[in-house]
Specification:
The structure is a single chain. The protein is α+β, with helices and mostly antiparallel strands and 333 residues long. Helices cover 31% and strands 28% of the residues. It has nine helices and 14 strands. It has a four-stranded antiparallel beta sheet with strand order 1-2-14-13. A four-stranded antiparallel beta sheet has the order 5-9-3-11, covered by helices on one side. It has a two-stranded antiparallel ribbon with strand order 4-7. A hairpin with a 2-residue loop joins strand 13 and strand 14. The longest helix is centred in the first third of the chain and has 16 residues.
Length: 333
Amino acid sequence: MKKIKTAPFLPSEVEVNEISETKAQVIAYPFESGYAVTLAHPLRRLLLGSSIGYAPISVKIEGAAHEFDSIRGMHEDIAVFIINLKSIRFRIRDELDRAVVNYSFKGPKEVTAADLVNEQVDVVNPETHLATLNEDGELNFTLEIAKGIGYVPSEDLREEVDHEAIALDAFFTPVRKANYKIENVLVEDNPDYEKIVFDIETDGQITPVQAFVNALETMNSQLSVFGSVLDVDFGSAQEGEGAANELKAFMVPVDTLGLSARSFNSLDRAGIRYMGELVLMDESEIKAIKNLGKKSFDEIQEVLTQHGFGPDFELDEETRAALTKKIAQTKEQ
C-alpha cells in the first residue's frame, strides 16, 4: 500500500563527469516517476537554444561587392568563402561582446582558422580551411564577431553592421549535442524512481558544465516571473504566437548550418533550402539525395542532432502538417 505524501520526493544526488574539455555527463537522482522527464526536456531545449557563444555577423571583403562575387587569385568564390567562414568557431578575448578584426593575406597560401587568431580573438577549430590563394592572390577582409545566443538570420543584422559589409547568418549556439536518458533507480525497495543522465558536447567555445549552468540560470530566471505575475492571461493569441515560434526553429536555411561545400551543394541541387525539410525526411530519403555520400550523410545527421533533431526526434502529425505547409508557402514567395 502506498503511503500518503504531501510533497514529491526531493532528489539529493548530483554527479558531474567531465570526460574531456568538450564532453561531460551530468547525472541527478532520485526523482519520483515522471518528474525526471518533466525537468530534463526543458533543460535540453535551453542547452541547445540559450547557451552563449560567438559567431561572425558580417564581413567586408576588399574587391568583392556581394556574396556572389569572386576574387582574382582565390580558388573559392565568395559564397564558398562565407560558408567556410561561418564554420569557424571563435572566442572573443577579454569577455567583450563584439570585436572588429582586420586580416590581410598574400599567396601562395592556404588560409586556415589558425591564421585568424590574434590579440582580439581566438578560434577553437584552428584546422578549419578558409581559402586557397594562388601566387598572385591577395585576400583582405574585415570581420565582425559578436557574442549571442541561438540563431539570428542575416536580414535581422543588416541594420546593425557596416552598410558596406555583407551581413552573415549568425549561429551562436556552442552546444553540439545535448541528449538525456531516464534510468530507473532503487529507493527503499521501490524500483520506480528515476535518474537523469545528460550527455553534453560543446564545440569548445564554452565547456559542457558552463553550458549546463547557463541553462539552469536561464530556467530559473524564466520561472521567476510567476512569483509576481500569477494572474497572467495566456490567451489564444499567445498560443498561436507560440506555435509560430516553434515552427521558426525548423526554418533555418541550410546555407547557415556550417556544412561542407560537398554536402551543401548536394542539398542545394536537390532544392532543399531549410533544415525543416531534412527533419521531415527519414534516413532513407536523405541517403537517396543524388550525389550525397556516406560522409555527407553523417555530417548532416550530426548537424541535425546539434539542433535537437537527432535520430530519436519525432514530429507529431499536427506539427508535421503545419511545417510542410509553412515550407511550401515560403518557397512559393
